[in-house]
Amino acid sequence: MQQDLLENQLSREELQDLKNKRAGMFVFQLSWIMAFVSLVVVNWQLRFSPNWAPEGTQKADPILAAFATGALILSVVLVKRALNAIQQNNAQACFTQWLSAISLGALFVMIMVFEWLAIPSGTQYAQVFRLMTGFHVFHAVVIGGYLIYVYQNRHLYHAMNYWAVEAGAKLWYFVLIAWMLFYIVIYWV
Amino acid sequence: MATASYPLRGQYVEEVKRPKLSEYLRWSIDHKIIGVQYMVTSLFFFVIAGALAMLIRWELLTPQTDLMASGSSYNTLFSIHGTMMIFTWIVPMFAGFGNYLIPLQLGAKDMAFPWLNAFAFWLIPPAGLLLILGWFVGPAEAGWTSYPPLSTIFSPDGQTLWALSIHLLGLSSILGAINFIVTIKNMRPAGMGWFQMPLFTWAIFATSIIVVLATPFLAGALTLLILDRVAGTTFFDANNGGDVLLWQNIFWFYSHPAVYIMVLPGFGVLSEVLSVHSRKPIFGYRMIALSSMAIAIVGFTVWAHHMFTSLQPELRIPFMITSMIIAVPTGIKIFSWLGTIWGGKLRLNSAMLFALGFLSLFVIGGITGVMLASVPVDIHMHDTYFVVTHFHFVLYGGSVFGIYAGIYHWYPKITGRLLNERLGKLHFVLTYLGFLGTFLPMHILGMQGMPRRVAEYDPKFQDLNVLVSLSSFVLGISTFILLYNMVVSIYKGKKAGANPWRALTLEWQTTSPPPAYNFVGDPIPFEDPYGYGTEASKAYLDAMEARFGGKPLIVEQSTEPEQASGD
């Protein structure tokens, strides 16, 4: 219903612009997830290499990773709630949750950086692990930086102008989707 | 039918000035400027890459290495030739056509994201520069496919620059493709559903889907290559548990769909040109549109046919089958085009000649493609000149002829002047004959076993190689006829008027060149973009002509007897 309100208030050009941005974001996400898929292929193919993980290789800690994943999921839930709040013009609630989401994201990044550093190098497993988590953390940090930027400009956004918040939220969903892909491949399969 | 309701009263004959030269050298977010920037930049790289091809053929005049200092410098020639032709000529050239034409064909003011559009273009000059700079640090010499370990341990620093350059070009085409998809999905005018879209727009849409889904794989592969080269990782190093096949899989998962990125827009150009210049509705509109999508989808399942000799044998047959299946949608297109020109009132101007040339050469290239898709033939022909001539038939005979047809067709829209027809026909004859002389004998050389990518060959192949080289020089020279024609016609060409070909798609329903925001008011598309030969289409075109002035070169048969085209 809020959506309709917004769409009634905008001019034809502004509405077109918003539709374009939403579609563009979707296509971008669809495209860029393929870069993550390509690294999954790397993982699957190099797994059969003789030097993948010789006897006694120390693997990454799955408990710690599960903890990080939980933090990220919670963070995405908060971002989603923040987006709903701004659509209802509740900036106060929006940015409280937004800030909590950023903190949880920072926790996720810290745990993954720790895992990245803790793993002993010298095997294909370690190399591919670092490639995948490094690639993901790089994205998490860049997009997290954007979330902080949105937080700093929080006075600008309200129910009639929240594209920047929506974009941040959607990019943060992307971080989660990409991570679930990697998490399953690295720790479970 | 709807003739009475076109709001076309009043004359609109104001002459639109062409943008100044300086506007093309600056950052601009006008899609028409960006389109021309793309085209001119890629023509520049086409000439450089073509010169490299001439050097390759010069070297191959004799069986020994004589022109080049060593085999390595010969490797560099064909590596940079292939890379430039693909990534800085064909792909950006079609992106240029897309940028110029898509908003016009959709009746839109600009692309969905004008700033992003400009940014995507401005990634190309630095990327091309990186490719050229490689020469000064020891150039890439692993071929455009850059298989490790050739591209890791055996290549100098230029290979790193090569990878960075392709990274930038890939990013550029992803950003461009996102823009195309959103523009086509969201910015169609009222009254234009998916199946009233011009077929060139359909082709760019299908191409863009391939680009957004496949190009990130290239980014992944190149990232690993750069890491292996500069950060000491061992993803492709078999001594340390790496796997060279990893590169082949990821690279071809991008690069096989990439051949459709290079040829689908050419198919789109062909659908426009053949229908307009045959004065007949296109045959099988839906089949042509949907077969583009089918090619885009099936294109993702065929990559390992490039690896028949390195793949696990049990995977060969599935990939052979998918590779042959992809000939079906392509065949649908070919027969639809034949159906389009069948019984049409063909107007054999330069655009049409190149389109027909495309049709004839692409069929040959397609058939050798099906031959190579068959495992036993491929094992025999692998890495011979048969492969070289196959992909030159589809990429030169297909894509480049498509580009030429597009240039002759849309140059009047872009510049407001017609290209010289006499020079155009000379260009066509020399290109067609030069092409056949260059690439037909290569089939024989390939079947006799002459390997590709080697500067020295068995002296028994020399006679045919001399023929190939001499023809290729004709082919090279013929390109300059087009370039000369394009430069001179800007000033000396005949005025084109708004719609010299009496075409029905929206890009022709405005002045040539179009004004700053393309259309004055909202343009009304004709109900069927290829409905030539009907009373309603004639009424529509007459109304548009009355609005924009200018004499079309084509006079409908029902009003006056046919006149010669051009001059």
SSE map:
The complex is a heterodimer of chains A (189) and B (567).
Chain A: H1 2-9, H2 12-46, H3 62-87, H4 91-118, H5 124-152, H6 163-188
Helix pairs in contact in A: 2-5, 2-6, 3-4, 3-6, 4-5, 5-6
Chain B: H1 21-24, H2 31-59, H3 71-105, H4 114-122, H5 124-133, H6 158-186, H7 199-231, H8 244-278, H9 285-298, H10 316-325, H11 327-341, H12 350-373, H13 375-381, H14 385-415, H15 421-448, H16 462-492, H17 535-548
What is this entry, summarized?
Chain A is mainly alpha-helical.
Structure, explained:
The complex is a heterodimer of chains A (189) and B (567). Chain A has helices at 2-9, 12-46, 62-87, 91-118, 124-152, 163-188. Chain A is an all-alpha fold. In chain A, helix 2 packs antiparallel against helix 5, helix 4 (91-118) runs antiparallel to helix 5 and helix 5 (124-152) packs antiparallel against helix 6. The longest helix of chain A has 35 residues, at 12-46. In chain A, 34% of the residues are buried. Chain B has helices at 21-24, 31-59, 71-105, 114-122, 124-133, 158-186, 199-231, 244-278, 285-298, 316-325, 327-341, 350-373, 375-381, 385-415, 421-448, 462-492, 535-548. Classes of the chains: A mainly alpha (189), B mainly alpha (567). The interface between A and B is medium-sized, with 31 and 36 residues.
List key phrases describing it:
heterodimer; A: 189 residues; mainly alpha; Four Helix Bundle (Hemerythrin (Met), subunit A); 0% strand; B: 567 residues; Cytochrome C Oxidase, Chain A; 17 helices; disordered C terminus
